[in-house]
Structures are given as structure tokens and as C-alpha cells.
Amino acid sequence: MDLELSPREKELAQRAREFCDQVLIPLEGLTSEHGELPMEQRAAVRQAVRDWGFAGINHAKAHGGLGLTMLEQTVIEEQLGRVTNGLWSCVWRPPVSLKFGTAAQIEEYLRPSCQGERRGCFAITEPNAGSDPRRVETTARLENGRWRLDGEKWFVTSYNASDFIIVHAHVDGDPDKPTLFLVDKPAEGLTHLRSPRFMHDFAFDHAELRLEDLGLAPEKMLGGIGQGFELTKDWFVEARLQIASHTLGAAIRAAEIANDYAASRVQFGRPIRDFQSIEFMLADMAVDIFAAKSMLYRIAWEIDRKADRKLIHARASALKLHSSEMAGRVIDKALQILGGRGYMRENPVERLYRDIRVDRIWEGTSEIQRLVVAGQIRKRGMGVYTDWA
Ligand SMILES: Cc1cc2nc3c(=O)[nH]c(=O)nc-3n(C[C@H](O)[C@H](O)[C@H](O)COP(=O)(O)OP(=O)(O)OC[C@H]3O[C@@H](n4cnc5c(N)ncnc54)[C@H](O)[C@@H]3O)c2cc1C
Fold this sequence. Notes:
This protein has eleven helices and ten strands. By secondary structure, it is of the alpha+beta class. A hairpin with a 2-residue loop joins strand 2 and strand 3 (146-157). Helix 4 (70-80) packs across helix 6 (228-264) and helix 6 (228-264) runs antiparallel to helix 7. The longest helix is centred in the middle third of the chain and has 37 residues, at 228-264. The two termini are 12 Å apart. The model has no long low-confidence stretch (mean pLDDT 97). Bound molecules: flavin-adenine dinucleotide (FAD). Flavin-adenine dinucleotide binds next to strand 1, strand 3 and helix 10.
């Protein structure tokens, strides 16, 4: 067993750290002030992503991506996680499902998305369908050779940075026929209802949309009828690793800030780190981070070694659950160590505290991850999580 990072992995992590320090972190204050990344900044940031060599980090070279391994992507995403206000999303990750498109769809959507010339957002969630996507009410019906889409979608992240939407709909209203469709913006029948504010400030919006008799050519279907979940399964794994990487990076930044502060802040005649209650918090934070990082790198490594797909799915759920909850614990302690300063919006720890709360909700809530883990134990035994292989 060799647990050492390769020179390439180390170089990518270092480059990503410098990119965050020089390009994204300076935009945190501005993004907080405006509630999102101002439109005027977006083209320059997009160009910076290309210049620093981070365009298309999650796709194969054959599709215009960088062809990185999962561990290489992970060390980059970990650095991006240090950045507040969702600015990590400036480094685009075109939806995985696009790689299953036709040759024409790959040329029209995936290749330009890898280059940052196009951007897609993903619309599954609805007013009555969250954790249970079988309750999706958006329908797709084939009429006179064209698809007609009707429904309402919520929480569509990065809608205002995207020029197309991947819409999850049920063909003929049948939950056994979940199917994906590519909707170019603007489209007749597509209405942006509103983009509400959320607990975090985020680089882009989370929109609510109405689709009303929206007509689509047959070639705008992505994959086959009923393949909606099959095509997004790989995305779930990727998204869960990405969340684990971000929450890890966020926790590390908060821990570093708290550790520095504990050494310099003097009360009752000595640095506060000399109080055992403070030092024990730092110890618990370090141990929590240590465990989450070991878990994350191991699963990324297993993916690169083409471990069994079902095993990877099972472990990615455990990882997402553990990492998102770990970051909540660590950042809460960091804020406590900072006292009143930790509660100030200008302090990155305050922003990290709000930012990472959603990681226990999106891409499958903590409760849903526990259901997955429990189901795997029931089906395949404890070994899924306790064996090394
Ligand atoms: C900021 C943000 C961005 C998002 N971006 C997107 C996006 O880009 N595209 C998109 O499609 N969606 C997006 N989502 C939606 C997100 O995926 C859902 O919020 C999430 O899946 C949970 O669904 P819900 O909010 O409807 O909660 P619900 O499913 O209604 O759950 C409510 C509560 O009940 C619990 N619960 C539900 N079922 C069970 C069960 N079987 N057992 C135990 N507990 C259960 C949940 O864990 C939760 O605590 C986003 C959400 C947020 C907040």
C-alpha cells in the first residue's frame, strides 16, 4: 500500500490553493455584499479558470475535459472548499450525464461546457418532490413528433449562469419513466418565477422555474425513456465526493483560523489555547478532519482502481454523511474559539458556518444517506464498511 500523493497530485493541490488565494478568495467580500457574484466579474473569473488550467476537471480528454483521476479532482476540490460564498462553483463541472449523450449532444453541449463556453444546470426538485423523486410531477408527452414539457422546478442552482437546463421529467406522467431533457435558454414556455435568497450567499442563484407546454425536438432527449436515474447515478457519486472535498477544505480553513487565533488571543494573562477546554476543541477538530480526509482519499483511490460500482455508491453515501456532519462540528467549534469575532460576517468562519449547512441537505439529506448505509448493511452485510477491500 502506498498512501503518498504523486508529484502531479501535489502540484494540482498547490496550484488550486494559489488559484483560490489569488482569484476566488479576493471575491468573497464582494459576493457577500451583492448576495451573488456580480455579473461584471463573471467573464474574468471564467477566463481565470481557463488560464489556471481548471477547465473541464471532471470529464475525459476525448470530450474536451482534462482527463483527471478522481484523486486528482479531489485534491483540487478540497482547496476550492476553503472558499466561501459558493465561489467554488465558478470552477464548472459539466453534468456527468452529458457523457452519455449522442455524438451530436456531446459536440453541442459537453465539449463547449468543458471549455466554459456553455453551462448547464440540473432541475430535478419540485414543490412536491425532494428526497422522493418518484413524486416528480413534471411531465413530458410526445405530440406530433415533439416533446411537450409541463411542470415546476425549484432550487435550480446556477440557473443565472447557465444557458441550458437538464430537466428531469416523467414521460406520460409515469414515475417508471424518469427521463432527462436538454432545454436551451431562453425557450418559449420557460418562465423564471423567482430566485429566493438562502442562508448562504452563493456565487450564482437557485431559481424556481415554470415549464408550460414547452416544445422540444426529439433529439433534445438525453439518453432513453426511463433512463433518468441510470444516467445520474454516476453524478451522485461524483457530487458526494465533491461535497466531501468541499466540507473538508472548509473545515481545514476554519480550523487553521481558530488555531492561529487561539495562539494569539490573550485573556486572563495567557493565550486562550492554554485553557484545556480550548485545546481539547482543537484536538477534536483535528481528529475529525483527519478521519474525514482519510475516508475521502481512500474512496477516491478506490474509484480510480475501478472498484465495484455498487460498493462505491455505498461508501460514497457514508462519506457524504460523515464529511458534511464533520464540517458542521468543526466549524461550530472554530466559531466558538473565535468568540464574538467568529460571529461577524466579515470573518470567513461565520460564512463557512452558514455555507456548509446545506451540505447536510442537498445531494441527499443526512437522513437519506443513513437510509442508504443502513440498506447496504442489511443487503450486503457490515463488511461493506468494515472490510478493507
Ligand atoms: C441551496 C440549495 C440548492 C439546491 N440545488 C438543487 C439543484 O440544483 N437541482 C435540484 O434538482 N435540486 C436542488 N436542491 C434541492 C435538494 O436536492 C433538496 O432540497 C433535497 O433533496 C431535499 O429535498 P426537500 O428539500 O424537498 O426535503 P424533503 O425531502 O421534503 O425532506 C424534509 C425532511 O424530511 C426528511 N426525510 C425525507 N424523507 C425521509 C425518509 N424516507 N426517512 C427519513 N427522513 C426523511 C429529510 O431528510 C428532511 O430532513 C437544492 C437545495 C438547496 C437548499
